[in-house]
């Protein structure tokens, strides 16, 4: 049985690949401008041997600032950004939230965790997937939501690319979460039209929830599940 690929290992491999790629681009730009290793090293505050090792990808731990500096020396500009990738590290609270939700589902529903999105090169995964006859929903658990715009954008992109009928967003019933949902209501409401209590009730009965929903689970398994009603919440 093969060992599981850890998120840190995937990130490190990508980092090594990027450093090698940048090294090749620096070398191509340097030779295209007829710059010697010695001259590049003097301008960049490194020895010619150090520049050569970076160009050949033999220094995987080279700082990003050093790479940006060398790019500037050879007439390049280094740009960096992030994008959604593989499944991140999950803590015990996140796993507990998923397990608590699973116990509320009808036994005949299919359940799987860390389900990759269908694209061959897409490294994203659903936290879980719940499915019944002719329907399936991606399940995402958020233990400490804070950026409503980023959350809405991420979930909508996963819904678009994930070949699902909707998204079930799980959150914990805490004061912080309630404040977040109250503030994020105008942004999240269009993407989560089904009231949480209705969606959970249908899933508990083994039926299609009828659309995306936000389900707020209690902090204690012994109490009844809380739900989010955007349109009319009691004060």
Largest sheet: 6 strands, mixed
Share of residues in helices: 40-55%
Helix-strand sequence? HHHHHEEEHEHHEE
What order do the strands of the largest sheet run in, or round the barrel if closed?
Answer: 1-2-3-4-5-6
Task: State the end-to-end distance.
Answer: 54 Å
- Average residue-wise pLDDT: 86
- How many DSSP-defined strands? 6
Helix- and strand-based class?
alpha/beta
Keywords summarizing the entry:
235 residues, alpha/beta, 434 Repressor (Amino-terminal Domain), 2 domains, six-stranded mixed beta sheet, elongated
Describe the model.
This protein is of the alpha/beta class. The chain has 2 domains: 7-73, 434 Repressor (Amino-terminal Domain) (Orthogonal Bundle), CATH 1.10.260.40; 92-227, Trna Endonuclease, Chain: A, domain 1 (3-Layer(aba) Sandwich), CATH 3.40.1350. Helix content is 43%, strand content 16%. It contains 8 helices and 6 strands; from the N terminus they run αααααβββαβααββ. It has helices spanning 7-32, 37-44, 48-55, 64-73, 92-104, 148-161, 175-188, 196-204, and strands at 110-116, 125-132, 135-142, 166-172, 213-217, 226-227. Strands 1-2-3-4-5-6 form a 6-stranded mixed beta sheet, with helices on both faces. Helix 2 (37-44) crosses helix 3. The longest helix is centred in the N-terminal third of the chain and has 26 residues, at 7-32.
């Amino acid at each position: 049985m093969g060992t599981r690929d850890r998120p840190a290992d995937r990130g490190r491999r990508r980092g090594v690949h990027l450093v090698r790629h940048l090294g090749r681009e620096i070398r191509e730009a340097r030779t295209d401008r007829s710059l010697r290793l010695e001259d590049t090293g003097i301008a960049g505050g490194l020895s010619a041997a150090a520049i050569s090792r970076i160009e050949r990808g033999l220094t995987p731990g080279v700082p990003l600032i050093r790479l940006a500096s060398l790019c500037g020396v050879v007439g390049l500009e280094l740009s960096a950004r992030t994008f959604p990738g593989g499944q991140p590290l999950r803590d015990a609270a996140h796993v507990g939230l998923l397990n608590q939700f699973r116990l509320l589902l009808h036994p005949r529903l299919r359940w799987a965790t860390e389900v990759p999105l269908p694209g061959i090169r897409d490294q994203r995964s659903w936290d879980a997937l719940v499915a019944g006859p002719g329907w399936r929903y991606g399940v995402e658990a958020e233990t400490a939501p804070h950026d409503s715009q980023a959350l809405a954008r991420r979930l909508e992109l996963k819904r678009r690319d994930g070949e699902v009928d909707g998204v079930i967003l799980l959150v914990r019933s805490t004061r912080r979460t309630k404040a977040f949902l109250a503030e994020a209501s105008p942004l999240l409401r269009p993407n989560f039209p089904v009231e949480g209590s209705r969606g959970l009730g249908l899933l508990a009965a083994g039926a299609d929830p009828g659309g995306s929903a936000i389900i707020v689970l209690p902090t204690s398994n012994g109490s009844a599940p809380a739900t989010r009603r955007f349109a009319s919440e009691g004060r």
